Amino acid sequence: MSPVLSQKTRYAIRAMQHLADRYGEGPVQLAEIAAAQNIPANFLTTILSELSRFGVVASQRGKDGGYWLAVSPIDITYGDLIRVMRGSLALVPCASRFAHEKCRNCVEEGECRTRALMLEVRDRTAEILDSIRLSDRIDPVPAPTDEES
User: Fold this and answer.
1) Domain assignment of residue 135, yes or no
2) What is the pLDDT of residues 113-146, one digit of tens each?
C-alpha cells in the first residue's frame, strides 16, 4: 500500500514542527533539524527551499545562519502545509478542489459513487487539518507493542 503522504511531505511536516518548537529563537541550523528529525540533509535543503518559496520559511546563509519560520506557527495549519507540499488533500484527482482532473478509466463523474465518497473524505480531512495549527501541542502516541500490531 502506498502512503497517502509522500516521504517528502512527512519530512516537511517534521521540519516545520521542529522550527515551530524553536520559533522566536533565531536561525536553526540545517544540521540540527536533519539530525533531530532523521531527515537526509540534501533532501531537507530541497524541502526548506520549497517552503521558503511559499513564504513560510526564511533563511540566512553563513556561520550564524540557518532557517526559521517566516510566519507565526499560529498562522500555519497542517492543511496549509500539506497543500503546499502535495497540492491537494484529495486522495483521487477528481475530488481535488484546486487541482481537479477527471480520473482515467472511470464512469462519468456525476455517476461515480467513489468520487462522492472521496469528496466527503476530502472535506472531513480538510476540516480536521485546517483546525490544527503548527502552534498546537501534539503529543506523541506510544508505538504499538508486538502483541497489538
Assistant:
1) no
2) 988 999 999 999 999 999 999 999 999 899 888 7
> What is the value of pTM for the model shown?
0.85
Nearest CA among 14, 133, 30, 10 for reference residue 72: 133
3 state SS for the chain: CCCCCCHHHHHHHHHHHHHHHCCCCCCECHHHHHHHHCCCHHHHHHHHHHHHHCCCEEEECCCCCEEEECCCHHHCEHHHHHHHHHCCCCCCHHHCCCCCCCCCCCCCHHHCHHHHHHHHHHHHHHHHHCCCECCCCCCCCCCCCCCCC
Tell me, yes or no, whether 1 lies in a domain: no
Judge whether 149 lies within some domain. no
47 and 87 inside one domain: no
Last residue of a domain, one of 50, 69, 88: 69
Amino acid present at 124: R
Asked if the model's pLDDT at residue 1 lies above 50, the reply is no
State which residues form the domain around 104.
Answer: 75-129
* 80, three cell numbers: 496549509
